[in-house]
């Protein structure tokens, strides 16, 4: 009897999360600026450097790791304030906290949605950025791996910043997140730089993976607590 109850509870949670995922992705699809703005911003920042410094292959290639990661970091922050704002205004957050559904899963689902909307387009655009900045083809795979780990961690940080600044100024969430994004920026640039210099980069990827593995439970729980502050 207890097993049946647990399985039915798990299925109800999954159904609820699927509804949230479908709803938010449909809203994002209808509001094309949600995913197009970070993509265009990323490409604009990257293309400014060849225009300003000239088409010097060696110079642009040496600057590529920092340029790509700074552009990715800033672009991922553009839609941070929208992670919870719509649900807060229409009362969806209220209903979720009143229900018996685990808040951790809601936060993780919202983080996943934010990454799909902003992080995934940045990954696609990073190939264009790598070509524009004369990054060797051998560095593409390390760049992609570092961006997958790093942009998802940035979405976790963004969710925490969005929860702490809920109902306040949108720039506040970016101010909260930026200082904590420095380790991700350093590790991400180190991965691409090491690959560019034909050095071992797996250690930096392992650190980024460990940060993400710790960040998923810890930052999601902190985000839940930050959201609950708005209901006290």
Can you give a write-up of this model?
With 232 residues, the protein is mainly alpha-helical. The chain has one domain (2-231). It contains ten helices and no strands. Helix 7 packs antiparallel against helix 9 (182-196) and helix 9 (182-196) runs antiparallel to helix 10 (202-228). The radius of gyration is 19 Å and the shape is elongated. Mean pLDDT is 82; it is low at 1-9.
Helical fraction equals over 70%
Structural class: mainly alpha
- Shape designation: elongated
- What is the terminal-to-terminal distance? 37 Å
The biggest sheet amounts to: none
User: Helix count, per DSSP?
Assistant: 10
- Report the strand count: 0
Q: Give the H and E element order.
A: HHHHHHHHHH
Kindly provide the radius of gyration, computed on alpha-carbon positions and rounded to a whole number of angstroms.
Answer: 19 Å
- Percent strand equals under 5%
Give me the secondary-structure topology:
Layout: H1 2-30, H2 33-53, H3 57-76, H4 82-90, H5 92-98, H6 103-132, H7 140-164, H8 170-180, H9 182-196, H10 202-228
Helix pairs in contact: 1-6, 2-3, 2-6, 3-6, 3-7, 3-9, 4-7, 6-7, 6-10, 7-8, 7-9, 7-10, 9-10
